[in-house]
Give the backbone structure.
Amino acid sequence: MADRKNFGSKLGVVLASAGSAVGLGNIWRFPTEVGENGGAAFVLVYLLCVILVGVPIMLGEFVIGRHTHANTATAYQQLAPGKWWRVQGTMGVLVAFIISCYYMVVAGWTLYYAYASLTGALQYQGDDATYFSDFFDNFVTHPWLPVLFAMLFMVMVHGIIVKGVQDGIERFSKVMMPMLLLIIAVLTVCAFSLPGSSEGLRYLLHPDFSKLSAQTVLNAIGQAFYSLSLAMGCLCTYASYFRDDTNLVKTAFSVSLIDTMVALLAGFIIFPAVFSVPGLEPGDGPGLVFKSLPYIFSHAFASMPVMGYIFSLLFYLLLFLAALTSAISIHEPVTAYLHEVHQMSRRKAALWVTMVSVVLGVVCSLSCGLLGDMKILGMTLFDCFDALPAKILMPVGGIIISLFTGWYLDRKLVEDELTNYGKLRFPLFPVFIFLLRWVIPVAIALVMV
Ligand code: PHE
């Protein structure tokens, strides 16, 4: 593609990729998983999954994307012409599309909560712990309010995508990611001043291994895939915009480190808050962030309501920014695919992706309320869109990518990409190949079975 743009700077590469990784997965899904899987033992397994499974697969995606400088479907097609492997490229685009429809719904909730924090609607001093549960239920089952906020969110994503790779994705990531990191630092300091902070820290740092099971490991692998944006063509597409002198290994480690730090810090913010209000449980599930936290924010800071107001506003702003940088990375593979494979202009391709996502996203959003009776395999559409990628498509995609990079691709090609044709050193290369060939596929398959 002659007119293909690359990211302009090293910082842009790291911030855009970290922007993709850091999202609702870190701040909404990670604490929920930690709470539901028993705390520190899960955190430990998660860290192992990031290092042993996440980083190698991310490197695999980087190699595929940067070597071909093409959208995911074309990339696999180029590397494995006429072979079944190329299905993974198209599947990645499809999975990105599925995720996009449900991600915008939750992202719309974060936008609404940021707005509600701003207007003071999340300030409540009463004793009814179910107050915010009802608040949330009334909101998501409202006939048009969640739809409106999801659409607003998608309009912003669209606005960034049409500006292109450098002026859109890179420029916005460079503004939004530092803001996000600053907010998370401020919130962490505030959370440490809460009365429940030591109990919250103990919950995250002292493992109880009796809580471990195969299910915990599967959840940790699924969470690592989700959080690091793997197996959906997102990072593969971003890597296709990396320049030839980008250090892939360093980038993968930086992105994984930032992503993991943000997830842990989100835990350090949320659990001290949870333990600061009697009667609330860390295992409260996906509602934790939307149902329990607003109550916690108004009660943990009861003596200083202004702090509660600021904390709540900053927190939902943080969630919203994180969701925005991830959502653009989910939109991009599909846009690039339509643009490059179906020869649409970038503008038109982006418009198609946005419009079809909005239509499906609206149905997905309504499935939490008006269309709640519409079930597939006993799940609402919303639950389907969440579970199908994270529990099945991403792990299966992970197995395919590791086998493809470990066995199918020419070992020399992989090594050349990772060392920039001999200019850099990567002494762990044999370990990396071993993990891709044996450990990752076997581990994921075993855990899935
Ligand atoms: N990693 C993002 C998050 O943590 C979600 C995501 C998944 C983004 C897959 C792109 C691809 O929220």
